[in-house]
């Protein structure tokens, strides 16, 4: 019974963690875009010029 109450209290305390996870996921995607995808698209545009 004590274990159940401890688990429920932990779950209630970490209720805002879900929104933080989404923020971090979006931030990681933005970082990946600016450091990997965008430079590759610029290179492809330069190659297409020639």
Automatic annotation (TrEMBL):
Q: Which InterPro entries match?
A: Preprotein_translocase_YajC
- Give the record's keywords alphabetically: Membrane, Transmembrane, Transmembrane helix
Q: Which Pfam families match?
A: YajC
According to the record, the segments passing through the membrane are 20-37
This protein's name: Preprotein translocase subunit YajC
Q: Which organism is it from?
A: termite gut metagenome
Q: What is the lineage of its organism?
A: unclassified sequences, metagenomes, organismal metagenomes
């Amino acid at each position: 019974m004590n274990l159940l109450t401890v688990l429920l209290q932990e779950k209630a305390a970490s209720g805002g963690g879900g929104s933080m996870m989404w923020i971090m996921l979006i931030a990681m995607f933005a970082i990946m875009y600016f450091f990997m995808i965008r430079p590759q698209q610029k290179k492809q545009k330069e190659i297409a010029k020639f």
